[in-house]
Design brief:
8 helices; binds NADP nicotinamide-adenine-dinucleotide phosphate
């Protein structure tokens, strides 16, 4: 059996990815930070469909908490290991640069970018030893083109895009692929405050995407069939470029 860790797996895109990968027979560790109720619902949904999963609650922006949680996880797995890592947990704290507080900047960088480093560095060791791994980073169009009002978020996502390209070249010969998926507007809790009616006029497909559509792409990248795709940043945006 393969094991996957999906950060921010309790809701939205991470939830859809967790469900999709579990349907393929992969054991999912569903990470989340606060929302026990939604995490339990996701776990229940996976189990009802005959999948296997477990909750693993820790704050990905906190290096000590993350290290401790991953250490416990590895001890539990014994000779097995996390072969598929989905770095998905993320937050927005939008504001114009001139009004942005230190907290808004640091919270977004720590949660969206530094978490990538803490988790990936830790889990990479076993992937290298076992010579198999899939790392998929959920970034954003904001990291490619920049979004006004989101300098913190755009910087964090652009940072992961750079790391994706660099790491993919470090580990390709170890049969580990590293890719990023860059969604446009996807209908989740993260986008409920946006004016969907107005924004969808600007999207060539004229609608927000569904978390399940992102999950399909991630599931392919996580599969054996995607073994020659690495270092790519793949947009899923209904045509926004
Ligand atoms: P969401 O619905 O707000 O869900 C966020 C998830 O991340 C939740 O499971 C949340 O856990 C978890 N999380 C947040 N901070 C965390 C932390 N410090 N430690 C551990 N878990 C944490 O967001 P989403 O829309 O699914 O977004 C998922 C990813 O896609 C993010 O990286 C986001 O930047 C990216 N993205 C989203 C869109 C979009 O339109 N939705 C577009 C482009 C990129 P709790 O349930 O415990 O809060």
């Amino acid at each position: 059996m393969k094991y996957a860790l999906v950060t921010g797996g309790s809701r939205g895109i991470g939830k859809a990815i967790s469900i999709k990968l579990a349907e393929k027979g992969i054991f999912i560790f569903i990470n989340y930070k606060n929302n026990d109720e939604e995490a339990q619902k996701t776990l229940q949904e996976i189990k009802e469909k005959g999948g296997e999963a477990e909750l693993i609650k820790f704050d990905v922006s906190n290096p000590t908490e993350t290290e401790n949680a991953l250490e416990l996880l590895q001890n539990k797995l014994e000779n097995n290991y996390i072969e598929i890592l989905i770095n998905n947990a993320g937050i927005r704290r939008d504001n114009l640069q001139i009004f942005m507080t230190d907290d808004d900047w640091n919270d977004v960088i720590n949660t969206n970018l530094n978490s990538y480093f803490y988790i990936t560095r830790r889990l990479l060791k076993n992937m290298i030893v076992k010579k198999a791994g899939r790392i998929i980073n959920i970034v954003s169009l904001s990291g490619i083109k920049g979004t006004p009002g989101q300098t913190n978020y755009s910087a964090a996502k652009a940072g992961i895009i750079g790391a994706t390209k660099a790491l993919s070249q470090e580990v390709a010969h170890k049969k580990i692929t590293v890719n990023a998926v860059a969604p446009g507007f996807i209908k989740t809790d993260m986008t409920t405050d946006l004016n969907e009616k107005e924004i969808q006029k600007l999207i060539p497909a004229r609608r927000f995407g569904k978390p399940e559509e992102v999950a399909e792409l991630v599931s392919f990248l996580a599969s054996d069939k995607a073994s020659y795709i690495t270092g790519e940043i793949i947009k899923i945006s209904g045509g926004i470029s």
